[in-house]
Amino acid sequence: MTSLNATSALDCRYRPKWHYAAERNWLNDPNGLVYSNGVYHLFYQHNPFADVWGNMSWGHATSPDLLTWDEQPVAIPCDEQEAIFSGSAVVDFRNTSGFGVGGVPPLVAVYTSAYAPASPLAGRQAQSLAYSTDDGATWTKYAGNPVLDRASADFRDPKVFWYDGDAGSYWVMVAVEAENREVVLYKSADLKSWEYLSTFGPANATGGVWECPDLFELPVDGDAGNTRWVLVVNLNPGGIAGGSAGQYFLGTFDGVTFRSETTVTEGMQTDDSRMPDYGWLDWGRDYYAAVSFSNAPGGRRLMIGWMNNWQYAASTPSQGWRSAMSLVREVRLETRAGHPALVQAAVDPFEAAGTELFAAGPEQLADGVRWLPAEASGDVLRIDAVFRPGSAGKVGLVLRAGEADGVQERTVLAYSALSGELSLDRSGSGNAGFHADFPSVERVPVSLDASGLLRLRIFLDRCSVEVFAQDGLVTLTDLIFPTESSTAVGLLAEGDGAALVSLSVTAG
């Protein structure tokens, strides 16, 4: 364990309003997402001592509503024997683990022990337990750790859930052999002793190591009699936009084996030619390690991701703190184009706390940029727009526009009728020169609906853009670092023939 002093001066220019960031120091993958007794618990990879990666421990924050978060003390700290890598947490309602006291179900964290040189298991990654009998306030490591050791250097990121089906009732662990691009499944009656079930992969995107898997069942179109299982596999690098990303497979799970119905390429990926055909959680650069909450009320499947990319995560321009989480997203399966597809909707901070600043439409759009009035500007906004691209070459929005030291700043979200692609261009978004991989243009194929419409919901925070297109069928998430004064919003059209059906700008 390396002890470093936290930076005394915090640079908060880019600290988001609605995205969780630790008060100080480094943050990456979300861990241990669980709901218990009216509280959502967000644990995460955290360096308690510096704003760079290292000393991996589980940070902790709590929320009553998934919007406002209170930072708690470090939950599971690293020590001389092990770093505390990613994992999950469950409410052990049946006290199968025996950790519960006085009839109160314990919270049990299942995490990866990354064993340090001082450990007899140095160099290995194995799965371990910690438990809490005070609803997550304090945690105790299980004396019998590790509970699952494959003598591997890259066996990590366990996601655990309770399975109840034809094969029986038991805990299932979904973890990865990262370098092999394999998801490995185990079962247990008590969270302590584990039995191998099956292996999935390699398949689809394998351009980087596989990490942070998740497996859950969802109804299609809300029909409990028609379900699919969703297997999420994050990978780094090898993402659709470059660097880190998350992919997903749809299929079946019989309690033993996951069988994919959406595999495009089997085995190790030979080239990038089929990349757009894979299932991607997000087509931007900055949505990684996304996993879902255990025990979410109402049967909702709620996910959150790390809003960064390993290509440049250590270089992003904030001092004293680094990185934030995405907005929480509810994911569902809906039939689109005749097939089940994953759709996502953000838990919306503007729904209760927002104030509409500006509304417009319907109207034709002239060639060029029409700037919205000053009252429609801001650095924390939700923008809802519906366009009819028609015969125009491009149509969209200019975001966070302004001028800094004589240089124009703008982030451009545009739909090309010619290519059928939605693009997010942050190459001129502001401070983009801190790393060579940061200036970028992300692109995703988007089909207009049967009426020829493009529907967009955009969440702007002080250092991020999250785009939900076609009612959440496609998402694009990117970091941006504009000057604080760059807050203007404009409507964009290239050529004639486009129409704005409706526009609403909301502050919150």
Automatic annotation (TrEMBL):
Keywords: Glycosidase, Hydrolase. One of its GO terms (biological process) is sucrose catabolic process. This is Glycoside hydrolase family 32 protein. InterPro entries: ConA-like_dom_sf, Glyco_hydro_32, Glyco_hydro_32_C, Glyco_hydro_32_N, Glyco_hydro_beta-prop_sf. GO terms for molecular function: sucrose alpha-glucosidase activity. The keyword Secreted does not apply. Belongs to the glycosyl hydrolase 32 family. One of its GO terms (cellular component) is cytoplasm. It holds the Pfam family Glyco_hydro_32N. Residues 19-338 form the Glycosyl hydrolase family 32 N-terminal domain. Residues 376-505 form the Glycosyl hydrolase family 32 C-terminal domain. It comes from the Bacteria. SMART domains: Glyco_32.
